[in-house]
Amino acid sequence: MRVAVIIPCHIHYKGQFEKLLNCINSLKEQTHPCSIVVGISFASNEYYSIFKNYVFPLVKRYAKFIVRREQTYQIMHIYNCLQKVNDHDYILFCDDDDTYLPKRVQIFVEISNDTNIIREKIPFHNEESEYWCYGMKPCVLMEFYSRSNDHLDLLCHKFGDIYLRNFLLYNQMFGLIVTFTAKSPLYIYDEQNENSITGTIKRKREFTQNTGLIDYMELSNQYLLALINNDIEKRDLIIKHIGDTDMSLNTIINRAKIDEFCKKLYV
After folding, report:
1. Residue 244 pLDDT greater than 70, yes or no
2. Amino acid 222: pLDDT
3. Where is the Glycosyltransferase 2-like domain positioned along the sequence (predicted)?
4. What integer is the mean pLDDT of 108-121?
């Protein structure tokens, strides 16, 4: 079985290069061989130069790179990489700051049995169904992007991967998701990375909790997530909390457009 692992990566600090190399090395050491495809973009010309002159020569034998000089969001990196691996039997994912244990790809292959979607359930992880928990046939991803064709602007956001996660969870056309739990997680999630999106959100929440201040940017983020997740209870709670600012939120966040997209995507 031909398996590809897609790594979406936007370089926005120097230490990220070391994490990316660790990620690629963990995939290179898989007991079942896999194609490694990295969609990469850069926050500055300096970071691009470091990649071109120092990082790329180290790993060009082991990975293919789809390079974008300007910032490219995670879900669009995945789209660009998909064009290179849609002839594979299965596609998995890895965030650039995370790693695989050596048998992860092999386990997915062993339990695939012609299943369209497989998920590794990671106990005690607060986002057990993030997109990188899944492996899938290319046709699943192609259907996702086909349905998203008129709403690519909504995918170009730091929460764009949540649409993919929900598509995998709620869409019924590909049959049941085969879920497994390993004795120890086969995917090593970097919980200590303060520079990640998750780390940034965590710091902001701690700041508002400690100071008692209202972070309206964080509230708008939570409002957007509630819309994407169709979480009516949470959405109404946020609206109640922010009161009159709800109208300005709906000016910034096109609720009607998101609702329309989600209905198209999740059924």
Report:
1. no
2. 87
3. 5-113
4. 94
DSSP structure string for 147-207? HTGGGHHHHSSTTHHHHHHHHHHH--TT-PPEEE--SS-SEE--TT-TTSHHHHHHHHHHH
Domain boundaries, the chain: 3-188, 214-266
pLDDT in tens, 156-207: 999 999 999 999 998 888 998 999 999 899 999 987 766 655 555 555 555 5
Tokens (6 digits) for 264 = 């198209």
Greatest Cα-to-Cα distance within the chain, rounded to the nearest angstrom: 57
**Phi, psi of 16, rounded to the nearest 5 degrees:** -70, -30
pLDDT tens digit string along 64-101? 999 999 999 999 999 999 999 999 999 999 999 999 99
Distance CA 223, CA 134 (A): 26
Instruction: Report the phi/psi class of residue 258: left, alpha or beta, with left for phi > 0 and alpha for psi in -120 to 50.
Output: alpha
Asked if the model's pLDDT at residue 47 lies above 80, the reply is yes
Buried b (16+ CB within 10 A) or exposed e, 106-144: bbbbeebeebbbbbbebeeeeeebbbbbbbbbbebbebb
Return d(Cα 239, Cα 248) in angstroms, integer.
11
- Tally helices (H) and strands (E) across the chain: 13, 9
CATH topology of domain 3-188: Spore Coat Polysaccharide Biosynthesis Protein SpsA; Chain A (3.90.550)
**117 with 177: CB under 8 angstroms?**
yes
Model pTM greater than 0.85?
A: yes
Q: Identify whether the C-beta of residue 135 lies closer than 8 Å to the C-beta of residue 85.
A: no
Task: Please say whether the beta carbons of 187 and 104 come within 8 A.
Answer: yes
